[in-house]
């Protein structure tokens, strides 16, 4: 059955992003699994590149002689190895449900590592929070998984960012307003998507 013959838009709940028919959703997901897999690999590949590029900023902010720098370096190395393993798993799975599960696990693990790294930043440094908002948009826009899994991951990450933002005392008021506004917009973006 070709996907063009199904009439997909009428078969999707408006705000849930789920199909009314489970077999229809399964057929759709199986048809686009290879494309979704490639999209996830490209996004995680870019994340890996940025993860490695930020090692130099860790060194600048913390100095390579502090123990926390070595812990962060280990976290970045773990994140790199974990995401390489995620690549391997993506190539092994043949079913969309397996893809969703491993993608959800990879997103939660990656977000946890990023939040840990963010929490080690000096109190006067807040620019990483803007990058975090970009990550939230990326979870909604670029990760081809079920909407509910995107919402759970983005909410978890957003709560971590909120906690970090609330613990920072020296953020300029204008910057803080911009970050809160962007954070709210990023999380309500999926409603309009």
Automatic annotation (TrEMBL):
Record's keyword annotation contains Transmembrane: yes
Regions crossing the membrane: 38-56, 68-89, 101-118, 125-143, 149-167, 174-192
Keywords from the UniProt entry: Membrane, Transmembrane, Transmembrane helix
Superkingdom classification of source: Bacteria
Protein name: Uncharacterized protein
Organism: Chloroherpeton thalassium (strain ATCC 35110 / GB-78)
